[in-house]
Amino acid sequence: MENDLELEDRILTMLSTQYEGIYQIDIDNDSVLCIYNRGNKFKKDGNVELEQWVQTMIDRCHYEDRGRLLDLISVEAVKGFGSNDEFNKKLDVRLMYDGKYKWILVTLMYDKTFNQITVTGRDVSHRYEYDEIIKRKNAELRKLLQTTEQYKDALMSESIVMYQVNFSKDTIENGIYQRKNNKMYQSVIGLETKAALDKYNIVPDIIIGCAGGGSNLGGLISPFMGEKLRGEKDYRFIAVEPASCPSFTRGKFAYDFCDTGMVCPLAKMYTLGSNFIPSPNHAGGLRYHGMSSILSQLYHDGYMEAVSVEQTKVFEAAEQFARIEGILPAPESSHAIRVAIDEAMKCKETGEAKTIVFGLTGTGYFDMVAYEKFHNGKMTDYIPTDAELEASFATLPQVPGQD
Ligand SMILES: Cc1ncc(COP(=O)(O)O)c(C=O)c1O
Predict the structure, then answer these.
(1) Is the CB of residue 286 below 6 angstroms from any atom belonging to ligand 1?
(2) What is the pLDDT of residue 146?
(3) CA–CA dist 353, 167 (Å, integer)
(4) Theoretical Cys-Cys bridge with 184: which of 53, 164, 244, 328, CB 3.0 to 4.6 Å?
(5) Is the Cβ atom of 213 under 6 angstroms away from ligand 1?
């Protein structure tokens, strides 16, 4: 018995490091058992009436989040749980602890056998802190882009790391948010391209890049985009993505998790939902569900275009390019090549002369299996259906500001 209690205590101690509160709702008896509660609003081990529990939770909830919390935990909502085979519901709300609001991820899990619901509350405030930082840094970026000189200075400084960040590559290690500042060094591509073009007095009309998470494209277009934002030049920017993972062209501009594990902070971006995984016949990279927040905003504001292309068409362009140029391009880069060829062919038809710049991001020496498949006529295309995308959008987190 003593050993059992010790074990129970140990489990509780462990759970209490992860949760702010754990409750069990007994639906048949209209009562709630408080298993653990950091806020001390309920006596541990005590049963309270369901209605009273709901009221206390609502009282400590931020007024902006009350309606949504009530939709989730009201007596009617709780009683209706499980009737439509829904066994798990989640919501982020602000709850008061010691006079301060914390963002709490409230999760309800229904147990059909006992007609009970386990409610857990987890502190996810860090997601929102980073979201605020990113919003502020995005605003700073816009200011920085006012002059190229300032922009270059900023590139050289540490501060750029904060907003030139591509979240798809970020991780949490040892509880510390690690920023992999890859768009910062990808920016060198754009700066060098600009310097080379300026040297030979070439002004591009169209700049094309492939788009997975958006880092190479963001890096390539940054200096040119600065000119466009300041109204000095007018370039066409085209992001090219796979038709099997169409974040820009068919995604939603919404707050979403940056990783499938749902650990990293939320970011507003074009996304297919963090659960989205391209079909198995998708050969190359460019399989990330979302898109860099900065590029998403630029696309949303109409500064950039996006197209999606099927992989057999991409490999067709890749093979043509390899045969003519003697360079075997990466399947990812070949998305940009496909559209560069398409745009050049349009010029041929209309007789217009245009300068087209595209990013060749890598070689295809590690992708010979895919090349072989294409060459043997075994490569297929898959475009996700609207229903598949809708199912994935349904997993987008419910947070304030989400449309
Ligand atoms: C060669 C190559 N180019 C481009 C990309 C695209 O990634 P991002 O859009 O994040 O630059 C990838 C990643 O899949 C890649 O491997």
Answers:
(1) yes
(2) 57
(3) 38
(4) 164
(5) yes
Find the angle CA(88)-CA(92)-CA(96) to the nearest 5 degrees: 125
Please give the distance, rounded to the nearest whole angstrom, from the Cα atom of residue 166 to the centre of ligand 1: 12
Nearest to 281 by CA among 252, 230, 245: 245
Q: Residues 306, 238: contact at Cβ < 8 Å?
A: yes
Q: Are 217 and 211 in contact (CB under 8 A)?
A: yes
Q: Is 364 in the pocket of ligand 1 (CB under 6 A)?
A: no
Strands in 84-181 per DSSP E: 88-97, 100-111, 116-123, 171-173, 176-178
Give the distance (Å) from ligand 1 centre to CA of residue 216: 7
Residue 208 has pLDDT above 80, yes or no: yes
Tokens of 120: 């857990």
Residue type, 345: M
pLDDT confidence bin for 173, thresholds 50/70/90: very low
List the residue whose alpha carbon is closest to atom 9 of ligand 1.
Answer: 212
Distance in angstroms (rounded) separating the CA atoms of residues 113 and 126: 36
Q: Which amino acid is it at 262? A: M
Distance from Cα 295 to the centre of ligand 1, integer Å:
15
- Choose the weakest-confidence range: 44-53, 88-97, 378-387: 44-53
